[in-house]
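Exercise 7. Predict the joint structure of the components listed below.
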Amino acid sequence: MMLKTIFSGFGGQGVLMMGYSLAHGAMSHGYHVTYLPAYGAEVRGGTANCTVAVADEEITSPVSSEPDNLVVMNSPSLTTFQNKVTHGGIIFLNSSIIDARPSRQDIKVYAVPCGDMAQEVGNIRVANIIMMGAFIKKTGVVPADIYLKSLETIMGSKKKSAAEVNRKAFAAGYDFVKD
Amino acid sequence: MNKVLMSGNNIIAEAAIRAGCRFYAGYPITPQNELTEYMAEHMRNVEGGVFVQSESEIAAIHMIIGASATGARVMTSSSSPGISLKQEGISSMAACELPGVIVNIMRGGPGLGNIRPAQGDYFQATRGGGHGDYRTIVYGPATCQELADLTMNAFDLADLYRTPVMILADGMMGQMMEPVVFKKPKPRQYSEKFMLRGAGQGKSKFFRGLILDAIDMEEHNWKLERKYQVIIKKETLHEEYKTEDAELVIVAYGTAARIAKGAIKRLRENGMKVGLFRPITLWPFPELKLRALSKKVKNYLVFELSTGQMLDDVRLALQGYAAIDFHGRPGGVVPTPAELANVIARHYETID
Amino acid sequence: MAKKVFGRPESLKETYFHYCPGCGHSIAHRLVAEVIDELGIRGTTIGVPPAGCAVLAYNYFDIDMLEAQHGRGPATATGIKRALPDRIVFSYQGDGDLAAIGMAESFHAANRGENITVIFINNAVYGMTGGQMAPTTMLDQRTTTSPAGRNKILDGYPVKVSEIFSQLQGTTYVERVTVNSPASVNKTKKALKKAFQCQIDGLGFSLVEILSPCPTNWKMTSVASCKWIDEVMSKEFPLGVFKDNIAAVKKPAEAAS
Ligand SMILES: Cc1ncc(C[n+]2csc(CCOP(=O)(O)OP(=O)(O)O)c2C)c(N)n1
Ligand code: SF4
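Solution:
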């Protein structure tokens, strides 16, 4: 198994956090993993993206030629990356702010209104965690409980209530996408 | 053993502290700032740890020279333009036989260039870089685990040979994260006689690079050279990947080798017999190992994120033994494995 | 039994200086060695000689020494001092070394208030390389690279190190002295002792600027050189204490302990 995912969006949407938490969860689950963020001037002007590779064997290149999954949190990211996704791949998009849909027919698309859902959960900042709920459910890269444990580890000693909100957010996304 | 997920820059810093580095000086430059910041944060929690943000890269290298002379394990880090400024000090360390680790997280150049991953500093690193007849041991790690392991090794080699050791990585290595396990560092062995700590009641000593008498200077040069010959014999490292049955071998190091491995995997799936030769020490270059491989494999493609620098070393190793070709992506461009695979496949079809 | 009234300081090796007759470096070396002896710090002092006429200082001082590259003395000294805070560390520098190529290292070591001592030999020229113009060369002074005399339009003005460094909050003690007469030599020794004592007491950065004759490159006799310091050089570079914060720094330090 070798699965590469690109996460992309505005800076401040927690895009790097999505990639990092996935990488951490996959590591905890015993997989090989690489996490490669775009850095420096690339992220000035407000865009951020990262590539996460998860595999059960040595990961040769952390750079992805054709990602299996693409998670986009804003419209420019969809434009930039949609044609890179491998044949049969999946795109998760934040339909709260992305109106366009990929024109390709050979991929699956999950439109998750994670922005609006976050408002419902009561904290717009957890839109990324909601998206991760949908992502984990559909890709099954790591079991949900392992991912959630990683998320807590990463968040460190932050307030209990924050962990609670994250779990709620994750569940909302997880349940949103049908089996 | 505990696995942790950390960025390359932080791994180097953590490995250094674990290896007993107690003096770090540096000046901000992207894409290695996380290393400096990690040192700032963590050195103050280590007994005897010193962090100095210097006024320039020049000052930083001369600060670690001072601390190294007292017997401290020392490190400085920078990226390409800053490493140019450090060359005076690196030459001085080689001359005075002072140990220390210098990290270069390369970016695109020449000049200010950009901050994207590139490998244009290979000549500077492996040819000494500063003035005079000397060499610097250069590690070219390709994984985060190697960043950790080779950083620790770098301190040991620096002590053993009393010479500067460079870690040559690039922006991608510095920024990417992979799980690592920090090995237990070896206990340090470094004689008091190489430290300046005040003469006490005894005889005073001094360390210097100035040797005005030409015959004495020549002798010092040969002494250094004999040391370099030992290093060449004992410290050369490389990796071979799928070379057993290869028709074509890619020669690449660091980030380029990671991309190349990805490309090779793809090509193998299509039945093309391609392998990888990856130097881990860039100086000493694994010349004899590469030449030995040429008994089996007659076609080589050097791939670098530059216009062709390690290519020279490959030619020195293989010229007359095998066919050598080159593919380069300088300036901060990092091709995907698929793109590189296309290049290699086209090349593969031309060999007979 | 004859009483020994004059001898070699213990901190100087049994050898001859290579300096030109009448050169201020010899006197400065001897004074530094005497001060080290008198303060009893030979065994704990580490010196940093420069690139410049004093490059071979490690052949003269019988203390541990680490050669610095041209101008980098204060950075090298910073490394030593931070690694070994209880040692006494000094950097010995010429005017080209301190005020040209090494201005950044010197300025910032001072500004950080490194607890080191800088001995600054101002001889208004680059001595070692053959008498070229230095940052401290006087206006209209002829040197090998200012054959028509230093021209303020082209070459700027003499850099006043003591004045500048005394303005930095990081410095504790800054004095300008000279070595052109027995009285001034005595005064210089006192200044050096005060500077080293300042460091021993942990009170921060001290700098002693010594106006120092270079008869060879000034193309004067030794006597004329001494006179030139009085009549010309010290007019541009007035002698005196530019900063003495020792008492002020000491008080809070004592209160804290
Ligand atoms: C990087 C570098 N540039 C130039 C030199 C050559 N150099 C040696 S000493 C010196 C100037 C010495 O003048 P100063 O610092 O005034 O000391 P003095 O010899 O007058 O005591 C120069 C330019 C050098 N050693 N290193
Ligand atoms: S050249 Fe000047 S500074 Fe140098 S030793 Fe001679 S007199 Fe002294």
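Discussion. Residues 182-200 of chain C form the longest helix (19 residues).
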